[in-house]
Amino acid sequence: MDFLVVCGGTGGGLIGNTPHLDGELLIDVSEENEEIVRCLSSLPDNFYRIDLDQIRIPQTGNAIFWYLQNTEVEHEDHYPDPAARNLIKDLHKQQYGFHSFMYGYHQQPTLAAAIIRHPNSVFLLDAAIARMYGNAGGIGGVKAGVDIWIVSSTAGATGEGIHRFVAERFISFFEGTRDFYRIHFLRLGNKTYESCDTAKNSLNAFVGVALDNAFHASVQEKFRTKTDSLRRTLDFNYFELPDVGSGYRAKPIRKKMVAKACNAIMMRKFRKDFTAISSNMAVVSRVGFWGGDFTSSEKYSEMMHFLKKEFSGLQNAQIKELDEGAPEPFFDLKVLSSDSIYSFTPQRIIDVKWKFPAITKESEDLESLESDVRNVMNSFGLFFNDDVFWYKNIEPKNRPALVIVTNASEDNRNQKPNMFGSHPSLGAGNSRYRTIRQAIIVKGWAERRLGLNTNDKMLADAGLLHEVYDLSNKILDTQKAFFKSKETKAQEISEWINDLFVKAVEASLWIAELRKSNNVLEKGLKLVESLLKRIDESYSAGDVSYYEDDLLELMPASLNKRFEEPGSPTWFDLLVEAVEQEAGKDNDPFREAVIRGVNGLTDKGLRRLLHAGKDVPLNALKAELCDDLGCYLPELEEKEISVWWQGSKTPPIGNSISYRIFPDIEKQLRIKMGKGADGIAFAFTDIESTGLNIYSIEAAKLAGEYEDAYAFLISEFVPHMRDALKEWKFSSMEPTGRYHVMMKINLDEPMDRAFLSYIGLNEEEIEKLGYYCKLI
Q1: For the stretch 676-705, what's the b/e string if a residue is b when 16 or more beta carbons lie within 10 angstroms of its beta carbon?
Q2: Which of 27, 183, 358, 718 makes the best surface tag, with the fewest CB within 10 Å?
Q3: Would you say 646 and 240 are in contact if contact means Cβ atoms under 8 Å apart?
Q4: Cβ atoms of residues 11 and 24 within 8 Å
């Protein structure tokens, strides 16, 4: 079970665009939230949002006043921590910047931290967690565990001010369940916002990392006291993205980049590897991607090219299978060789007084042919206690089954139900396209084995029916012989009867398969015809661009592919439903269903993503994938180079992983690509996880002791904090260094005094921080 919590606007692009989630929670001010929701075609399932500026507190400043009124700051018995009292009093006196915050908290985490702790906020947050968990099926315990992904940046206000408190509420909630859970913080760094206010961002990041450090240590200690501590883990993943500037044009690009980076980190396929290096630790990641610029029209046209070709050739599917040398389906008739069940000796022929029915090939139509075979089959009832329906009452273990060999291996067989059992239908739960296609193939083989033409008329001298009639005539002629004794007749008939029995059984089975295939195709081909009609209409209307096979860049899904859990509609089902639902619709459900079938990349599509021509050798492409860690997006004017935390070229890393992650690609191309190179693994996963993108991701546990990891993470921000601490005068009318420090501190959250000393702050600087922030 996976839950996503987006704290602030940084991860807004993830909402509704992240695969395999069981619940999503968005927390920010109303204007930011509404902007994110407006960009969605529909709200995701199990989605919740909390508008921090709409919780009966029109202005964020009122949250500070609420603290002042409800904590009696002058009395230690009510609020014993002097740092918190200092912070509340000075915030109350500070008028600069206290106004409506519907557009954000202006990089002041203190305000976001205050409002998230308001009782109304806590109530909404706890309710959202409980409902999200319950609606995802979590009541009663989740055996596979719960992964909670909390996305925030170190530069802003909302995310920096609330992400740890949100985690606390999740921990509090899961303490009352039987689940084990993993909390993952995805922390976007300041280099991503370098063109914005660097000084403010750096102060936010300093306080944020220092508080992360203390919080991480505190939670680890709490988990260690539990007898089942391995069932609860918490980790911080710090990463950067290239700075794409500031302003309204940069914002959507940054959101898109953040969404891609977080999706790469969150992929289930690599969860085990990430857990191995990150469990209860701080890690750094470096993410790059080659983003596709495939338009909706390109996707639609390429998929329509595939569908038109596929459906147009469906009628000849059985011929294609035969031409490709597919193994012939056959009935496993070994059970008919059992002497104890099927014994046709001369003496038994005499004892049961077997009389062969007179069958005359009066007509070549299927009904008459089937009637003659049935009469032959019924005649054998004398050998089975005079039961003419003996073949319907045979025990399952003795029933012949149709075997369809799906490849050259005899071990890889699909036994298809025959006349003794049920036949695949076009009903819900079955793959309708697979059923239709298999029915066509089985029909083709049935006609060939029986000796029928495509109109189900008997051919002159070939097939099982011809052999049944030939053997029947020999037996009839023997029975009619006037001068032969019954012993002689029985002896002669015994030479043919076993062969006739087997061929009659097989012919009856093939006829039954042919009947059932015809029934399936009567409905199924109408569905295909309706789809072909809709496809031809699109071509006639000029909605589709024409493509040659060697120019295709996108790989289609199987028409049998299910996009959700087992039992959900296949791509073919979605296409059929879209055609049926189109009447009266303002949107184009058929177009959406067609585009849904994009499943991966061809060689040409891969080269397009990598900006490589058709003449570039594959080895050169692999080398570029291994060497180049950048971000390519159509919106970017040029490639942006990915960096480690705070632009470090060589962070002090311990255990690490490195992947290049692809959507599905053509089978032969995938084989040629291999498993990777230079210690970098190539991994292929479903397009729902990657989209039309290739991801590069490197993640590493920071080397050294616990404090060394956080010392590295905070090192770039220490000079900015020292500069702010030098300007310690107080002014209620203009911002000073003291004001900026005060507006970064989160109420009720401590810092580690020893850690502050470890990173180089002197005692005076530590005491200044301790004036507003509790030190432990």
Answers
A1: bbeebebbebbbebbbbbbbbbbbbbbeee
A2: 358
A3: yes
A4: no
Report the alpha-carbon distance of residue 543 to residue 594 in Å, rounded. Answer: 13
Whether 79 contacts 73, CB under 8 Å: yes
7 in Cβ contact with 29 (< 8 Å): no
- Is residue 652 a contact partner of residue 263, using CB atoms and an 8 Å limit? no
Judge contact between 15 and 41, C-beta under 8 A: no
Picking from 305, 281, 301, the residue whose alpha carbon sits closest to that of residue 213 is 281
- HEC assignment per residue over 14-68: HCCCCCCCCEEEEEECHHHHHHHHHCCCCCCCCEEEEEHHHCCCCCCHHHHHHHH
DSSP-assigned beta bridge partners for residue 160: none
The answer to whether residues 206 and 721 touch, using CB atoms and an 8 Å cutoff, is: yes
Task: Please give the Cα distance from 92 to 88 (Å, whole number).
Answer: 6
Torsion of CA 287, 290, 296, 299, to 10 degrees: -120
Residue 127 CB contacts under 8 Å (≥ 6 apart), including other chains: none
Q: Is 599 helix (H, G, I), strand (E, B) or coil?
A: strand
Rounded Cα gap, residues 352 and 546, in angstroms: 70
Cβ-Cβ contacts under 8 Å for 630 (sequence gap 6 or more): 242, 288, 639, 640, 641, 642
**Residue 185: how many other CB atoms lie within 10 Å:** 24
> Which of 42-46, 100-104, 237-241, 713-717 has the weakest average pLDDT?
100-104
| CA 4 to chain CA mean position, Å | 15
Calpha distance 211→750 (Å, rounded)? 6
How far, CA to CA in Å, does 410 sit from each of 329, 414, 615? 12, 10, 41
- Check residue 696 and give left, alpha or beta (phi > 0: left; psi -120 to 50: alpha): beta
Nearest C-alpha neighbor of 64 from the set 124, 108, 10? 108
68-82, 320-334, 357-371, 685-699: which has the minimum mean pLDDT?
Answer: 68-82
456-499: pLDDT as tens digits: 676 667 788 888 888 988 998 898 888 889 889 989 988 898 88
Q: Are 46 and 22 in contact (CB under 8 A)?
A: yes
Rounded average pLDDT over 312-329: 64
d(CA 603, CA 553): 7
Residue 381 makes CB contacts below 8 A (sequence gap 6+) with: 387, 388, 389, 390
Q: Give CA–CA dist 574/364, Å, rounded.
A: 41
Cβ proximity of 154 and 208 under 8 Å:
yes
| HSE-CB of 77 using CA atoms within 13 angstroms | 0
Contact 244, 194 (CB under 8 A): no
As to burial, measured by CB atoms within 10 angstroms (0-12 exposed, 13-18 middle, 19+ buried), residue 497 is: buried
Place of tokens 């040398």: 325
Q: How far is CA 510 from CA 376, 400, 523, in A?
A: 15, 11, 20
Element (H, E) at 510: helix 486-540
d(CA 577, CA 592): 11
Q: Contact at 8 Å (CB) between 238 and 713?
A: yes
pLDDT tens-digit readout, 147-157: 999 999 998 88
Contact indicator for 456, 447 with CB cutoff of 8 Å: yes
Pairing of strands 146-153, 47-51: unpaired
| Distances 188 to 61, 150, 235, 500, 651 between C-alpha atoms, Å | 27, 11, 14, 78, 16
User: Quick one: which of 683, 671, 570, 689 has its CA closest to 625?
Assistant: 683
Of the pLDDT bands very low, low, confident and very high (cuts 50, 70, 90), residue 355 is confident
Count Cα neighbours of 74 within 13 Å in the Cβ-side half-sphere.
Answer: 1
The pTM score is 0.78
d(CA 275, CA 287): 17
CB 264 within 8 A of CB 697: yes
